[in-house]
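JOB MANIFEST
job_type = single_chain_structure
chain_count = 1
residues = 63
[input]
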Amino acid sequence: MLLMQRLGRELGIAGEVAMEQQMACGLGMCFCCVRSFQTADGIESRRVCIEGPVFKLDEALSW
């Protein structure tokens, strides 16, 4: 993912990433699938099962 982010920035190509994460409830209530994303306002937590599973590649943070 880090390589794809770097190439996207260098070549000016936007991309998306589909996140796979363990989802206990699939409804967003348990917050088991939360991942961190870099936004203009700082680091933001999002639930993969509700806000995703597809996100902007340049916002996704690696493990």
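[summary]
The two ends are 10 Å apart (CA to CA).
Strands lie at 16-18, 34-39, 42-47, 54-56.
exit_status = 0
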